[in-house]
Amino acid sequence: MALDAKAVKTAHKLLLKIGGVNNYIREYHKDEEHPFNTVMGYYPHGGGWENVFMDVLNITDEQLQEFNEGKKAVPNTSFEDDLGKGVTRIGWF
């Protein structure tokens, strides 16, 4: 289930608090490189996004705690994936 506009706004605010650097969600394209701590959206859908996430290099315990404490404010399913090389992807789908 896609994140509606309200869920996207809440997710974006939380990711900015954790270390996100962009005021607007950037559309994710698999074949493009994107900088760490950039809040990304995958597949725009009905005023929201199918997924909203951010890749964090060397995520700290404090950042993970902030994510885990705040993630329930977004009604969608959250995820935390280790992508290797010290990169963790956090977000919702």
What does this structure look like?
With 93 residues, the protein is an alpha+beta fold. Helices cover 26% and strands 33% of the residues. The chain is built from 2 helices and 5 strands, in the order H-E-E-E-H-E-E. It has helices at 5-18, 61-70; strands spanning 26-27, 40-45, 48-57, 78-84, 87-92. A hairpin with a 2-residue loop joins strand 2 and strand 3 (48-57).
List keywords for this structure.
93 residues, alpha+beta, 5-stranded mixed beta sheet, 26% helix, globular
Runs in which pLDDT lies below 50 for 5 or more consecutive residues are: none
Question: How many helical stretches?
Answer: 2
Task: Report the biggest beta sheet as strand number plus sense, adding barrel if it closes.
Answer: 5 strands, mixed
Biggest sheet: strand arrangement = 1-2-3-5-4
Radius of gyration: 12 Å
Oligomer: single chain
- Secondary structure: number of strands: 5
Shape label: globular
Mean pLDDT: 96
The class by helix and strand makeup works out as alpha+beta
* Share of helix, binned: 25-40%
> What separation lies between the terminal Cα atoms?
7 Å
Q: List the secondary-structure elements in sequence, H or E.
A: HEEEHEE
Strand proportion: 25-35%
